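Worked example 2:
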Amino acid sequence: MQLAPSLHRIGSDHVNVYLIADDTGVTVVDAGLSGHWREFLAELLALGRTLEDVRAVLLTHGDTDHLGFAERLRGEHGVPVYVHRADASRARGEEKTSPSWGKVKVGPLVRFLTYAALRGGLRTHYLADVQELDGGEELDVPGRPRVIPLPGHSPGSVAYYFPSVKAVCVGDALTTGHVLTGEQGPQPAPFTDDPARALESLSSIESLEATWVLPGHGAPWSGGVAEAVRLVREAAASQAT
C-alpha cells in the first residue's frame, strides 16, 4: 500500500511494516510477523524492486511482533538488521519481559490475537545477529534516517526520522489503534515498560517537520507530529483520571 511516493506499508492496522525506497534501494522499518513475508514480496514487486534491493531492516525496538521476517532477510539474504543496543538482547531472544496489559476489551483482544496467530505470531524467529545503534546517528541506508531514542516502551525504543518522505516511524512509542481496547487515535501504547518515561520521550519528536507519524500498530497518521503528540498526552491525562 502506497502512503506517499517512496513510502509504502504492508500489514494492517493490527501490525505495520514500512518500506522506504529511493534510488539506492529499500529500507524496511520493523518486520511485523513472519507471515507477512508474502505481502512483503508482493509490495516489493509493486515497487518494481526485488530482494536484492533491500539494504537494511531497522527495528524500532526488540519486541516479537516487530521481528517477523527480519532474521529471514538477514540469514538468507545478508540484509543487516539494526536495533538500539539497549534492545539488542531482547531482539536476540535473550531477555523476556512481562509489562502490564492495562485495560482490555475481549473483542479487540481476540481480533488482534487471531490476526497475529494466522500470520505466524506464535512462532518467533529471534535475530542471530544485530547491528547495534547508539541513537542520534544518521544511517547510510535508503532514506538516510536519523535515529531518535524514545525510551519507555522498552529501554531501546527509537524512532526513525526520514526527512525525504516527511515521515517518522515511531514503533510502539505511541499507537493510533489500541490492540487491547479498540480505541482509535493517537494514544499511549499498551505493553509499555515505563509509561511515564515513554510519554516524556515524545518531546524528542514533537518539533519534527514530518507529515506522517507511522506507528507499529494502528492507522498511519498524516496530521503531523505535534498534533499526534498533543493527542497522546491528552489521552494519557484522561486515562489517569
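DSSP finds seven helices and 13 strands in the chain. The first strand starts at residue 2 and ends at 4.
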